[in-house]
Amino acid sequence: MKSPYSRKPRPLSESLSEIVAFRGLARREGDSQLSEIWHSIAGKRISKSTRVIGIKRGVLNIGVRSAPLLSELAAFQKTELLETLQQQHPDLKIRDLKFVLQGHMKKRDS
Fold first, then answer.
1. Whole-angstrom Cα distance, residue 33 to residue 16?
2. What is the CATH number of the domain that holds 86?
3. Distance between CA atoms of residues 101 and 53, nearest Å
4. pTM, two decimal places
5. 100 and 63 in contact (C-beta within 8 Å)?
6. Would you say residue 31 lies in a domain?
7. Ordered per-residue pLDDT tens for the chain, 110 residues
8. 63, 20 contact by CB (below 8 A)
9. Distance (Å, rounded) from C-alpha 63 to C-alpha 51?
10. CA–CA dist 87, 105 (Å, integer)
11. From its phi and psi, is residue 57 left (phi > 0), alpha (psi between -120 and 50) or beta?
């Protein structure tokens, strides 16, 4: 019978990558950076009433506190926000923005 300790040691970088993925640390850091990027592009007025939900298949999902603001963003500001985002952060490969009503959001102070 083969001993469970007979395999070769793994590189430390491989083990650390697994730990980071398992704990979700990379995702939390990524979400935080994505939120900072969104708030710098959206500006103070919009930032107070929105938050990044996440990114999926190139679509950045943004939670919006009120229906009137959601309508304004989707109808009048989406194109400009998306273009600015794509120009300033082409590495994110964001192809669309989706605004989702989330009336239960906490108010941001900044």
1. 21
2. 3.30.300.180
3. 11
4. 0.69
5. yes
6. yes
7. 566 666 677 676 665 556 555 554 445 555 788 999 999 999 999 999 999 998 899 999 999 999 999 999 999 999 999 999 999 999 989 999 999 999 776 655 54
8. no
9. 5
10. 29
11. left
The answer as to whether 18 is a domain residue is yes
Q: How far apart are CA 97 and CA 40, in angstroms?
A: 16
The encoded tokens of residue 10 equal 């793994």
Distance CA 87, CA 47 (A): 19
Residue 43 lies in a domain: yes
The Cα-based distances of 77 to 86, 99, 102, 109 in angstroms read: 14, 11, 18, 23
Q: Which structural domain, as residue segments, surrounds residue 81?
A: 12-101
Q: For strands 96-101 and 59-64, give the pairing.
A: parallel
